[in-house]
Design goal:
Layout (H helix, E strand, L loop, with lengths): L1 H18 L7 H19 L22 E7 L2 E8 L9 H15 L3 E8 L7 H8 L2 H9 L1 H11 L4
Parallel strand pairs: 2-3
Antiparallel strand pairs: 1-2
Helix pairs in contact: 3-4, 3-6
Length: 161
């Protein structure tokens, strides 16, 4: 029952958000601030390197400016939603890319945030499973305890000199 209420609440909040009813009289200022935050987020993730190729996620169009959404959810707290697009529908490294996005943002975002990372709908054969994995705190923590995986993530998220 609580799961249903939570989903209903989340859906209602989204409907109100997109309709503009939730923003109140400060909508233009909030919207501009959210767009600035979205660009700030994009600037952080665009330089992440692909685990297989010598390119960045931006160069491969895995992430774009339009894949980042930021919503104010409280005083000085934001919901950051990333929807990335793997290069192929059967990309075996999609989970690793999601992990890199999460780790880099957790380290670099200068404001309080809640982070949701998803594969863009219809762009991967196992997107539901991967979405669950990259948004599960315990699985992320377990993955980062693996020294080999941690080394790959560090190579991907470290800024080039």
């Amino acid at each position: 029952m609580s799961l249903v209420l939570g989903l209903l609440s989340h859906t209602l909040n989204r409907v109100l958000w997109y309709s503009g009813l939730r923003r109140g009289c400060h909508a233009p200022r909030n919207q501009a601030m959210e767009q600035d935050k979205a660009l700030e987020v994009y600037d952080i993730i665009r330089t992440i390197r692909d685990p297989e190729k010598p390119n960045t996620l931006e160069e491969l169009e895995v992430v774009t400016e339009s894949c980042v959404e930021v919503q104010e959810i409280g005083e000085d707290e934001y919901l950051v939603i990333i929807r990335f697009t793997p290069t192929v529908p059967h990309c075996s490294l999609a989970t690793l890319i999601g992990l890199c996005l999460r780790i880099k943002l957790q380290r670099c975002l200068p404001f309080r945030h809640k982070l949701e990372i998803y594969i863009s709908e219809g762009t991967h054969s196992t997107e539901e499973d991967i979405n669950k994995q990259i948004n599960d705190k315990e699985r992320v923590a377990a993955a980062m305890e693996n020294p080999n995986l941690r080394e790959i993530v560090e190579q991907c998220v470290t800024e080039p000199d």
